[in-house]
Amino acid sequence: MYFQRIRDLREDADLTQTAVARLLGIQQTVYSRYERGFQTIPLEHLIKLADYYDVSLDYLTGRTRRMEVNK
Is the full-model pTM beyond 0.70? Predict the structure, then answer.
């Protein structure tokens, strides 16, 4: 599921949940719920995360294993 991918991407980038939450304009507790799969991530946040990590929405949502964005 995609919440594992957002955690993996965050950890690979050596970011804290607080830093990513700040990027999204939300509280750290809300972001934590996203990563744990306890709260659905709004599309606008998925888009921001995909753009920030330079991955496709399909990768972020688990629809593909390919990380590349077609530009």
Answer: yes
